[in-house]
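Lab channel / #folding
Pinned by the channel admin:
"Please post every new chain as: sequence first, then the structure tokens as a reply. Keep commentary short and put observations after the output so the thread stays searchable."

First post following the new format, from NK:
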Amino acid sequence: MILFNQLDRYIGRSILLSTTIILAVLLALLTFFLVLNSLSDLGKGQFTIWVLIKFVILSLPRKLYDIFPVVSLLGAITGLSALALNSELIVIRAAGVSVIRLIGSVFKIGLVLVAVGMLFGEFIVPASDQGAHRTRAEALNTGLHRKGSGIWLRDKWAFINIGDVLPDESLLKVTIFEFDTEGRLRIQRRADKAIYKDNQWQLINVVDTSMGRDRVVLKRSKQQPWDVGIAPDVMRVFALRPESMSIVHLYRYIRHLQKNKQNTDRYRLVFWNKVFMPIAIAVMILLAMPFVFGQIRSGGMGQRVFIGIMLGLGFVIISRGVGLFAVVAGVPPFLGALAPIVLFLCVALLLLRRLVR
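Reply from TO:
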């Protein structure tokens, strides 16, 4: 059995070409707005024009991924409308091809778009988005560097390693190496956690190892103040962003946050949004069909594209609004991510039912 026959490939080429053109237009618009938003950082620290260009390039994949369902909707509408305007859909229907068969052809190319979106979101977006925020953070805060071993910073004669930054801006696995003026290690201090309280950092479960010339002294304490010139909002840029993670990484990080008694609603919402992204793309393609097949003989590509843009914007606004409401109101993030997709699926099925009749 051939998965893609000649009809499928012909319709698929039209949709893919339109989708590519729309992606190129949106890429130019997103680049313009990203550059515009980044100009305020230009000249600060080491944020040069080359850093700005690198930051914009690395930021683009996630922006495109966020609107990929809308791109799929517009690509399907414009691709099918182009066939309708050239009377090709009329010829195909006159040859005995049913509307259901045409819908099947469109859905096959939709599976290709779903696969592209999934691969893009799982392998390209996480690396590029993390690289973008690391590039900006390191340029604006030259004393901070995130490596594979955690975050490193220097404060006077001390070097500090931080294992992780939690969403509430507390720090995990803090190790402080204090040196004397001659460059010899004087104290190594380890703490399970650091929290910002009463305008000062507090180290929790601390182990101090003092290095003398002829002996080593070990001292333990439940809590002690930490005098360091770093504010919590500076550390915020190093907290892992849920949008920058793959589905597998998100799942593992949610469990990590739960073990540390952190609120995971925002992370779970992003997790389910990523899980349901293929369904959202399929629903958007399904939604495009009634607006084309229902008006095969009429022109009005501009009208159809306008309707597609309005539907896409509506989906984005409703998805984000329902998601934020779910997080604030305590509704399970699973429902917050699924509800807008179900709503638009019902609309698409209702319109298709009228079309098939």
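NK: The first strand starts at residue 144 and ends at 147.
TO: also worth noting, The chain has a mean pLDDT of 87.
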